[in-house]
Structure formats: structure tokens, C-alpha cells
Specification:
Length: 430
Amino acid sequence: MLSVRVLLAVLIAGLHITRVLAWAEELKAGNTCTIQPLGEGQDDTDQIEAAVSRCGHYGTTVISDGVYNVTRKMMWNLVEARVDLHGYLNFTANLPYWMNPENTYRVVYIQDQASWFVVTGRDFTIDAHNTGGIIGNGQYWWNWYGTTSRLDGDGRPIAFTLWRVLRGVVKDFRIEGQPFWCNTVAESKDVVYDGMYCNATNTNPEYYGYNVVPNTDGIDTFRADNVTLLNWDITLGDDCLAIKGNSTNLYFQNITCRGGNGIAFGSLGQYANLFDRVGNVTLEDIRLLHIDPEIQPNMGSAVYFKSWSGTTIGHPPDNGGGGGGLVTNVTVRNAELYNVSLPIHVYQTNGAHPGDSPSTLQFANLSFYNFTGTSSGSTIVDIACSPAAPCPGMVFENINITVNTGAEPVYTCTNVVSQQGLSSCETTST
């Protein structure tokens, strides 16, 4: 005769096995969780997290049309899963709450950036169907700051962060009013974004004519390998794309940047103890468009490359320098420009002071093909490399940019070891 203890153990084990078998059958049948918004003024965070917790591994989560209020930081761990995000995640405009470091994730190492929504995991697809994504309520943030100075890492959250992702896909995603960077992909590999819309457009007439939306980058990459961006449309006030340290094997195609500073490689060399490596990057079919200057006065470069000086001053996120690195094998092909200030630019004095040591980070093997359109400035190419790490292997082909004023275009090369394609690029050393 079984003792009570043994019988109880058998019953518990049987119950556990039954649950496991039921769960396995549910997965086999295609585990699906579907939610609807609770309604205006209601908090949807619990139901979103519960659905993803239940179906985020080997299942499908369907977030139906509508607006879902999110009131606290949220992390999705997805494994062999799919999320159909038909609606918008509305990160409510409680600025003092979000500015408290305890209420955001600090998974992006560089510059101590904050994230309110992080996705991690492997082998997943998030499809927003061009009907869903994130509401960042950026206008509240921009009104709060006004035209006062804002520094990197001051607590404004990144709208959408992929962190430690292996084989992830994001499709047809929309982000309205990012307060800070629109996206970042960090410490990740084999990631595809196919269709991303980011819109940081100031609608407050009090700030017309100012860049009241700084740091609203389209995406920043960091410690990311084999990342593909396809079909992006970004309205912003800073770097359209920012390729930061240890970003390798990147392919970006069909990218439209409306306003801001252009597509950036950097800034690099900010951390003296880190070697920033960027390599094997291809960008093609890009458009850099200067929009209504009342809404966004800036349209800086088409593509620019920047590093800090060789002297360390202060500490990141706002200071630094002294770091080394190598950026090599970058190809930019088929660029259409409208009223860009300085189309192609390399400089290695970001944050520099008089008397700083030159940067030891090197830019090499940069190739530019088929650039057309207009520039508001007469300098079309300004390659100002560091005397401590001169630039070899610069290639230019079919650079046909018209200066708006009718002036003759200027091409400048400083500390360039070798270049081809610009016979008029004066090469000097410092």
C-alpha cells in the first residue's frame, strides 16, 4: 500500500506531466495568444507582458489593432516566435517617471543610454504590418526641453532596442515621435529590419526654425554583426543612421533621411579602453533630403565619418576620447541629395581642444559611387584624416553634385595616403 507521501508525489508528478504534455500539444497546434486594447486611460502593460510570456517561446502573439498604453519598462524574450503587432504601443508621457534611471533598462553600454522597450532572444519575427509600432510622445519631451542644451545619456529613452538578438526580423514597423534614438541594435547578430518608419516632426510653432528634436537618430548600431536595413524612411534631427564601434558586415538599402546630420560612422574613439572596429559596410540607394526649414533646419552630410581626438578629456557619455580603431571596406553607392550642406566628410577632431593629440583611429578603403543632387555649401568632399593615422584607399566615381549658388565645387583631401577619381582633390598633410 502506497504511503500518503508517495501517493502525493505520484499525483504531483502526474499533474506536472499532464501540464507538460498539454503545453507540448499547444505548441504543436501552434500556440497563439491574442489581445485587444483595454481602452482609453487603461493600462495594457500587464496583458501585453502576459501574452508574450505565454506565447513568446515557440508561439505567436497577436496584438490587435488599437492603442495600448504602456506605463513601465518592458522586455520581450522571444524564442522561435512571431509577434503580429497590428496596434501601437503607447509609452505614456510621464516624463519624470521615465527620467528616473530605475525605470529604464541600461543595456546599451555606450554613453549610458536608457531603453524603455527591449527585445532579446533568437529566431523571431516581429511584423507590424505598417499599421503598428510605437508611440513615443516625443512632442511632450521636446516641449519640456525647448531649446535648452541636451546631452547624450541624459535619460531620454531609446524607443526600440534590440539587445543580444540572434537571427531576428523586424518588418514594416512604425515609430511616431521618438524622444531620443528611434532604434538601436546592440550585441546582436544576423538581424534584418525590412520596413522602418521613424517620425520626429516638431509640430509646435514656438520652435519652428530650430532643431528642437536633437538625438532622434534613426538607428545606432553597436557590437552588431550581419545587420541588414531595408526600406527605411526617417524624419529626424540628428544622425539618420549611426554606425558605432564593432559594427561589421552591414548592408543598408533604400534609405530615405529627411533632415538631420546625415549617415554617420561614429562617433568612434570615445572610450580610451576600447578598440572600435567597423568593417564591410555597404549602403546603396540612399536619399538625403532637406525638408521645410521651419520644421527641421538641418541637413548636414550625405555620409560622414567622425572620431574623437587622441587625448582623453573627462569621461563618457559627454566627454572622452583617446580610443583607437579601424574603419575599413565601406562602400556607398547611388546617393541622391537635396540641399545637403557637406555631402562627404571625414573628420577626426570630435570634442577636441587645442593641443590635443591626434586620433590614432584609422579610416581606410572608403568608396563612393554615383552621388547626384545639390549642396548648399561649395565643399562637396572634405576628407580631413588624422596625421597619426592617414587614410589610404579612397575611391570616388561619378560624384556629380551641383552647388546651389552656382559656385565651383571644392574637394579637399588632408592626410590622405591615396585616392582615385577626384583629380581636383588637393591632397595635403598636417
